[in-house]
Design goal:
This protein is α/β, with parallel strands linked by helices. The protein folds into two domains: about 15-135, Rossmann fold; about 140-235, Winged helix-like DNA-binding domain superfamily/Winged helix DNA-binding domain (Arc Repressor Mutant, subunit A), CATH 1.10.10. The chain has eight helices and 13 strands. The chain has helices at about 25-35, 45-55, 75-80, 100-105, 120-135, 165-175, 185-190, 205-215; strands at about 15-20, 40-45, 60-65, 65-70, 70, 90-95, 110-115, 140-145, 145-150, 155, 160-165, 220-225, 230-235. It has a five-stranded parallel sheet, with helices on both faces. The chain is elongated and about 55 Å long. The chain starts with 15 loop residues before the first strand and ends with a strand.
Length: about 240
């Protein structure tokens, strides 16, 4: 399945990313996901290529790998901050030790994500960093009697907290980004699954059913529009 439809970002503005990653398969997958909504993604497979991009273009956010063929991404990050460049940076790292993560933040990273990662988490971290940079720390969304916190992965139904699993979280996030909009199964598949995953025809039906159970008792409901898709509406 090749992603073709709109992406995760609920903001109308388009974002320009610099992706610094030497793993071609991962880079191409990330690039495909981020361009679903028309966002621009320049890919650099080395630090030299990244510097070339930065010399000729302005970026809203940098996604930075650590182990690159021509150097250490941490040195690149430190030089980026010494040069008083304020472009936000999310580091993509296989290092999971607390000391490594603290060192990255102290060096100047705005956030980090540990490989291998789920795209729902990457997308949430991108939104959070961009909100902070834009002066809007509020991430909670509301609809009818739902209060949804994508970063905490919880939804409250009339004040009662309910925990969401990963793809339930992603599905609700998509539906809440545009209530009353109808999403086809293909569009939802593109948002919930990576291009490398094999997805059965009824996968979306399964996750819609699970999410409906989590929203039981709410005035908000996921409506099936026969032959077209699903939308979040008010009962």
């Amino acid at each position: 399945m090749v992603p073709k439809n709109r992406a995760f970002c609920e903001k109308a503005e388009k974002v320009r990313f610099l992706l610094v990653e030497d793993n071609a398969e991962l880079a191409q997958t990330v690039q495909a996901r981020l361009t679903l909504d028309g966002h621009g993604v320049d890919w650099a497979a080395s630090l030299d290529a990244a510097e070339d991009h930065l010399a000729t273009a302005a970026y809203d956010l940098i996604l930075l790998d650590i182990m690159l063929p021509d150097g250490d991404g941490r040195d690149f990050l430190a030089a980026h901050r010494r040069a008083r460049r304020d472009t936000p940076v999310i580091v993509m790292t296989a290092r999971s030790a607390v000391s490594d993560r603290v060192a990255l933040l102290d060096t100047g990273a705005d956030d980090y994500i540990t490989k291998p990662f789920d795209f729902a988490e990457l997308e949430a971290r991108v939104r959070a960093v961009l909100r902070r940079r834009g002066g809007a720390a509020q991430t909670v969304q509301t609809f009818a009697d739902l209060i949804f916190d994508p970063l905490a992965a919880t939804v409250a139904v009339d004040g009662e907290a309910r925990e969401l699993r990963n793809r339930e979280l992603r599905l609700l996030e998509v539906l809440m980004s545009a209530p009353e909009r109808i999403y086809s199964k293909t569009q939802l598949c593109d948002r919930l699954f990576s291009a490398a995953e094999s997805v059965s025809d009824n996968a979306i039906e399964v996750y819609v059913a699970r999410l409906r159970r989590k929203l039981d008792g709410s005035r908000a409901r996921i409506e099936t529009v026969r032959g077209v898709g699903y939308r979040l509406t008010v009962a």
